[in-house]
Amino acid sequence: MGGMIVRFGVVAATVLLAVLAPARDGADRDGVPRVSVDEATYLQFNLCGNVCNGGGLAVVERLATVIEDRRPDAVTLNEVCENQFARLRADLDGYGGRFDPTGPICRGGARYGNAALLRTRDVSLVGSWALPDLGGSEPRRLMCLRGWPSGHGPLVACVTHISIDQADIGPQLGAVATVLNGLAGTGTEVVLSGDLNVDPLDERLNPLYAAPTFGEADSAGRASRSVRNWLDGADVINEDTFGQHKLDYVFLSAPGWASTTAQVVDGGLSDHRALWATLTHGRAATAADGQ
User: N or C: which end of the chain has fewer CB within 10 A?
Assistant: First the structure.
């Protein structure tokens, strides 16, 4: 979404890491055992790069510090200015990616749109698709990139930002689901992330929730879509990411992964909060593992 103006002071990198990136797994925490596993992490964030950050670079300098610390396999961004993406990509070691302009121009003249980064230099474009624009409002797109993040199999990462125009939301989500279903079932892990501008219960999300082999990271099949901010052990299900709404999503097609969790973290960098999704594949650690 994006709209309200946020003013920032100087934020120390250590403070930023504490609030924008979730805590790393370590000893038992809040009843959740350590896990001796292979792990994949994804970050979805509506940066609000123009309205909240005026097309400036400070927001991505801070974001780069978080990404370098956490090293997510894929990062998807909405409402990012092209100059901000260029700076972020230059600041990150070992990441490749692409900016996908959607039409508007940021303050200072840079193009505006979505972006995706994968933790590999070898990144190729799968496709970039214009989404239906029945309401004649701001153009919206879906972009997918392919890469092979170090230590994991092939990954297709897709990013989109759905319109706030009520006439466009349903057709755009349907178009995204059609592309997504075409990418699934090939043995390649597929991730779709973005600001979808509707809450989980909205029936216009049905094509995505019903997509074969896909699951949404922040519910992971353990709760009804009607539940929001529901505590499930140490995990909070369907957390709000914009005001009192869950608008940001990570849909995953990841056969063979044992579990999926998600955390929403407010770093004060945007009018949205960051959504981190973590996939694990392995077994819970035993006491003997620590001896």
Answer: C
Kindly state the DSSP code that residue 289 receives in the 8-state scheme: G
d(CA 143, CA 226): 29
- The 3-state DSSP class for residue 150 equals coil
- pTM confidence score: 0.84
Alpha-carbon dihedral sign for residues 275, 281, 287, 291: negative
Print the domain residue range for 70: 36-284
- How would you class 11 by CB atoms within 10 Å of its CB: exposed for 0-12, middle for 13-18, buried for 19 or more? middle
pLDDT tens readout for residues 168-181 = 999 999 999 999 99
Please state, as a whole number, how many other Cβ atoms lie within 10 Å of the Cβ of residue 121. 12
d(CA 255, CA 215): 11
Residue 30 counted as domain residue: no
Please report whether residue 85 resides in a domain.
yes
Which of 80, 8, 70, 81 has its CA nearest to residue 43?
70
